[in-house]
Write a structure and sequence with these properties.
Length: 256
């Protein structure tokens, strides 16, 4: 089997290569390639791979744009640290994915699925799945996000514009909206609901408790175990730490 790894995290690429060699003795591994640009240039010259492992978030953007620049017929297994939309799209379109950190048993299952698909369909059906996935991704990009939230204040209901929100946070199963000027209100959404409603260019789910606006982040500190700690405005009641699994995506988000 001949595979190509497209992955911008060196340790993740090495881990994946090691597991592949253990599961498939004699496998030929190429890469890793770490950017969309390098991947496109490489695949324009060489595409004779049985399988491509493709990280969703590369150093220069989301790897979906590779499919907009070149026609890829190779079967692809996607990898991701955290991307809820992508996971749903893969489930819908029968394209497999691996959540990081990748475990050997899960990788083994993905390889078996790839082999069965190839036996039944060849590469043509996989290509069709990828085309459907790209269409789904484009549709998601065009999604209209919630622009305001109706909150209670005494005996009244008042609208809060999304641009006025500094962050949302959960505490004891209650979710609060905090405005940039410091006001705090209870909202009748879960953080999972809100994450799907707000514009991902403006808000990022840094951990299970906090969904933060880019405008509320005043400083980012390195934290232990490769995590990041945020200084927010208004100041939060507790430390807000970006989880280890989301640190890479958070940095890309902050870079715009």
């Amino acid at each position: 089997m001949k595979v190509l790894i497209i992955e911008d995290e060196e340790h993740a690429a090495l881990r994946l290569s090691k597991m592949l060699k253990e599961l498939e003795p004699g496998i030929e591994i190429n890469g890793p390639l770490d950017t969309i640009k390098n991947s496109v240039l490489h695949l324009q010259e060489k595409m004779d791979y049985d399988l491509i492992f493709l990280d969703i978030q590369l150093a220069d953007g989301r790897s979906f744009s590779i499919f907009e620049q070149i026609n890829i017929n190779n079967p692809v297994i996607f990898t991701t640290a955290y991307d809820e939309f992508a996971v749903k799209a893969f489930e819908l379109n029968s394209v497999d994915y691996l959540l990081k950190p990748i475990h050997q048993e899960r990788l083994k299952t993905a390889l078996l699925k790839f082999k069965k698909m190839k036996e039944v369909y060849g590469n043509g059906e996989t290509s069709a799945f990828l085309n459907e996935l790209l269409i789904s991704f484009k549709s998601q990009q065009e999604k209209q996000y919630q622009s305001r939230f109706l909150v209670s204040k005494a005996d009244s209901l008042i609208p809060v514009q999304a641009e006025e929100v500094a962050y949302f946070y959960a505490e004891d199963k209650v979710v609060f909206l905090v405005k940039s000027e410091g006001s705090k209100y209870i909202v009748n959404y879960t953080l999972d609901d809100l994450e799907n409603r707000v514009n991902p260019k403006q808000f990022f789910r840094v951990n299970r408790q906090y969904l933060v606006s880019v405008h509320a982040i005043k400083k980012v500190h390195h934290y232990f175990n490769y995590k990041l700690k945020l200084d927010l405005s208004p100041i939060s009641d507790e430390d807000v730490v970006v989880s280890k699994l989301r640190t890479s995506d958070f940095k890309m988000w902050m870079n715009g």
